[in-house]
Amino acid sequence: MHAYDVLVIGSGLAGLRAALAASERASVAIVSKVYPTRSHSGAAQGGFNAALSPQDSVAAHVFDTVKGGDYLGDQDAIEVMCTEAPGVIYELERLGTLFSRSEDGSIAQRSLGGAGFPRACFAADLSGHVVLHTLYEQLLRRQLRVYPEWHLLRLLVKDGVCGGAVCLDLHNGRVETIRAKVVVLATGGFGRTFSRTTNSLICTGDGVALAYEAGAVLSDMEFVQFHPTTLYGTNILISEAARGEGGYLLNNRGERFMDRYAPGLMELAPRDVVARAIQMEIKNGRGYEDEYVLLDMRHLGQDLIRERLPQVRELAERYAGVDIVREALPIQPGQHYSMGGVRCDVWGQTSVDGLLACGECANVSVHGANRLGGNSLLETVVFGRRAGLKAAELAGSRTLPPVDPAAGERESTRLAAVMHPAGEGVARLRRELTTLMTDKVGVFREGGELGAAVAEMGLLRRRYREAVVPTGGLSFNYALVDYLETGHLLTLAELIVRGALRRTESRGAHYRLDYPRRDDAGWLHHTFVSRQGEEPVFSEGEVSITQYAPKERTY
Length: 555
Prior knowledge:
Structural class: alpha/beta
């Protein structure tokens, strides 16, 4: 067994920021299923929102976030995020982040969807990548212990207290137990529940699913964001920065169709509005091949594209054979972000004592029913830092909690039991699951399809219980990894579908064709879900409203 004051699980922006904050007062280790610089945070492109300009204000940032989330976000948490944003950005700058600059030398800021002011601080269109590497440099400087390619198998919870985790060391093929006074989950999202997604292959919701199994409350799982502009054919993310810099959306008639849906903000309306508009154009026969529309950046010019959108240009050329300086780019909506996650407070504390959460795996809730571009990266560093500080504080006042000494051995036995030379694997099952989610739980939802999806989930779960992994030991057994991840995806997909069927209204990213209006009287509350036995139990949670009463959301 290994033992630390604080164990951080996940090495993206939230995890690294939490580890750095905690390391000031505690011994810290990081467990990650990939090498830290390969974390999905590196794919984030657009920027970090912060009210830095004298013409902007924290109050305006708060209001844009509340409105963008369709009034489901907790306003006390939103106020914390927006208030701390400027200080966090300047802290990142002092740590060495090379933000893009304005002509006067100040940090450059661009407009992203749903913002009333250009407040996204960025590093070209590589914002997440640049900050991830900056934080990793600081991790190396402090010589924090990292366990890369260790996969989370089980959270150790005894008598309602989390005391560590059981992990699979993929390199050495060993099941290892790490004890800790406090565990911080920073395991990212679960976009791979969908076949069309911008998320990397590692985004399978391991931490969220295992927290749920360990007794943690999850919140708002039905709210899934679909990014308007993913590359047709591969669903690689085409950054909102492309529209922030002035890109147009065009249908097959050559029309800038957003004037039909959001005449005030056009292409810079919130993502849920733009994604539905694109899907509606395609549905009504104004798309190309009934699959996509065009993102036109030709009018921006080569110099601006080279300076501000180099990665977008490279991705377009490499994966679509399109030079965006000369040609419009085919795009379609795809799953991008999960608003739901492990329910926690503004310090990351969950319903399980000693278990904290931050980043996309957490639900604070600052995004409500729909996240604004530029707020997810901000959330990782604001609440990652807070979770790290709270973890160190808690660790300083407690001893190592007792854990089941046989937990590691039981996990080894469980893994050995699924290895068999004959039987169905999970590859086909996983394809059917992700296709089902894209087809029936997508941009537009309908009660009949959601009900059918719930029934199909039951069949998939039964097949999963009988699935096997080819015999082959534990070291670098990626068939075993795929098996474990598919189980997590099944768990979370069912919660998404059941939550979506249960919420009989349309709010933010959750749009019901059979209930097209927002219903504040019946549904202005969070959806909480916890596990009792083998079944999910749903309940309602109060939304914190401090300044802004709900009103009609128009752009």
